[in-house]
Amino acid sequence: MDPLFTTQILKYKGDDSFTCDDTLVREIKLEIFINDERVGALMATPVDEQALAIGYLMSENIIAKVSDIESIETKDDGMSVHIKAKIDKENLAKLNAEGVVISGCGRAHTANIDPEAIEASKISSDVKFSKDEILKQMSTFYTQCELYEKTGCVHTAKLFVDEKTFFIGEDIAQHNTIDKALGKARLAGVDLSQCFLMVSGRLSSEMVAKA
After folding, report:
1. CA pair distance 13, 75, nearest whole angstrom
2. Phi and psi torsions of 146, nearest 5°
């Protein structure tokens, strides 16, 4: 499914108004199935659906590692993702039974991310990036985001490893961008301790927990 569509809008400039075509971003309900069981749905922009599903399920500790995934397939014209994998059934049950609405630009559910534990978390990675490198990547951030360049109406996230290895996530829902970027990186076998994450907006507690 094309994530973009064109519609006619009424535009005002001073006291004048006129109609014109504008490009907008589509949002769908993405159904997620694991081992032939529907486990939930995410409101999302229909691009990088598989990465979103994997990033979300791994951040919820339902799938522990990429090697536990047997297969992943997008069906129904991009409206559903079907995964065969070894899973943590207890965490899946928590998600189904105890999932709560979390903050952010959009709606999702979480049961296995504990925002109260964030303050106690410590970064064990020894990787270092220079100030100049970080500022350089921030300056080119939006130019690498295709949907943002075309519409200006999506959130973005970028997981940077080096000049040749980085992963972009774009979505109307801000937390989805992190899941997409993380999902791409995990599927590519990247060591997440050797990179840094950039996002386009403010960070809510569950987004910090995902990172």
Report:
1. 43
2. -60, -50
The tokens describing 26, both together, are 């589509």
| CA dist list (Å): 157 to 27, 38, 46, 169, 176 | 18, 27, 16, 5, 9
Which H helix or E strand runs over 57? Answer: helix 49-59
**pTM of the predicted model as reported, rounded to 2 decimal places:** 0.85
Task: Please give the helix or strand (H or E) that residue 63 lies within, else none.
Answer: none
Rounded to a whole number, what is the largest CA-CA distance in the chain? 61
Domains of the chain are 28-113 (3.10.20.10), 131-210 (3.40.140.10)
User: Mean pLDDT for the chain?
Assistant: 86
Q: Are 27 and 43 in contact (CB under 8 A)?
A: yes
The whole-angstrom distance between residue 160's C-alpha and the CA centroid of its chain comes to 15
Sheet harboring 37-44: ordered strands across?
A: 37-44, 28-34, 80-85, 69-75
Instruction: Read off the tokens for 154.
Output: 């999506």
pLDDT band at 125 (very low <50, low <70, confident <90, very high): confident
Catalytic residues: 105
Q: At what angle do helices 49-59 and 174-187 cross, to 10 degrees?
A: 90
